[in-house]
Task: structure prediction
Amino acid sequence: MLGKLRPVGSRVPKPEFPGELELPWQTLYQTYLMGSGTEALSAAVAISIGRKPDVTAPEVILPAYGCPDLIAATVAQSAKPVLVDLEPGRPFMSAVGVKSALTESTVAVVGVGFLGIPERLERLAEICVESNLTLIEDSAQCFPPASSVQGWADLVVLSFGRGKPINLMGGGALLASNANLGNVASTLSQYPLKNQKLGLAWRSMRILFNFLMSRIPFAIIERIPQFAIGETRFHTLDEIFRLEIPSCLLSSGIGDFNLRAPLTFLYNQKLEELESRGWTLLAKHLVNDSGMDQALLRYPLLAPDRLIRDRALERLNGAGIGASAFYEHSLEEIDGIDEILPESECPVAKDFAARLLTLPTHEDVRDGDVSTMARELFRL
Ligand SMILES: *Cc1c(COP(=O)(O)O)cnc(C)c1O
Result:
């Protein structure tokens, strides 16, 4: 197989959008651009801690399956991550689990969107209002954030890194609700400001990055171990910056995102019969049924068991399709995190990690690729 369809990631936009920068959340939230999604999340944790000055050992509620940066952002503020197991067969935190994880020391609940599917923020908002906690929507994988419309979260996190809905080769944003958050500006002002310049170096990197996303270059770099393509690693967060991103770049990113054709309906339709074989098409059950096709960052399925998932990965990758197990492990099983987290039992998250398979949805996926994927999956 010559060339391979990458598992995730859209091209970096050309920074040339001439119009006004329109942000879908601008009536409800103030936008603060940050060095990365992780930095934005860590700043959100700092703000949450500041709103509970009586708590001496702050705790933050997080899902047990997710990005290792959730842990890095939390421990960087000397807060304790408290993992909540998932609802069976779903990427959402168990509602009972969240309630029983609350203590006097809880300062925030992080509702993490999954590949374009937001958490159940309305429920989380109820819990947070009741207990006077900060609700953070981590929307690094979803654009626009679900809070844009209803304003559920107090703080929202966006990422503009590789493999996110809008790829600007880095950067992130913290959105702060216009309502009642007194300490946002004072907390953020302690972080130094960097300026994202779009000079020759940036423009050359953009061309190189975009080139490496094509099928043949991707197939080559994927084989180079130093690039560690697709591996999940834990990195500590050592510094937090505010970032000045030129508005022409951000609006070009949003503009390109809006032009991409969602593939959710096509996948749901082509793969529907897999459900009678014990698979779960998560998007079919969880993407809201508005009649409008909705873009996902990757298309997620749960295999009947780990063995079948692993066989599917092998077959699809052999056929030139970058199918992925995503994080592969629940958070507490990831190297480096297992040492800093207290022992917890999250069997549902482990089962989810063992059965998850994701398929690409980016702008280079053609109808023929979806047919190839369906063919390989039905042959298992
Ligand atoms: C990628 C990601 C982050 C971190 O964003 P970076 O910009 O890469 O630092 C945080 N949370 C989630 C859910 C993510 O997927």
Observations:
- The two ends are 19 Å apart (CA to CA).
- The CA atoms of residues 118 and 146 lie 6 Å apart.
- The chain has a mean pLDDT of 95.
